[in-house]
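User: Can you predict the 3D structure for this chain?
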Amino acid sequence: MNEEHLPCDKKVLEEKLYKAVAYNLRLAREISGFTPRQAQSAIWNYKDEAMFANRVSEMESGNKKIDLKTFFKACETYN
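Assistant: Here is the predicted structure, written as structure tokens:
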């Protein structure tokens, strides 16, 4: 295998990983009965559910990296 292709392959694998995590987070949220705003309030402890209304959709799109702390908190929230 040519090493020039390795970084691209890693990037593709990372993108697939974040998409899979995002899909599963959305599925877990829906199964647990949380709306995106309720989940956002629970995960980030926002008092106003309208504040930063796109945080959950960003997390569930897979287009933005999610840090482990946020991932863990979402898992705890959704059981």
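The chain is about 70% helix and 0% strand. The mean pLDDT is 87.
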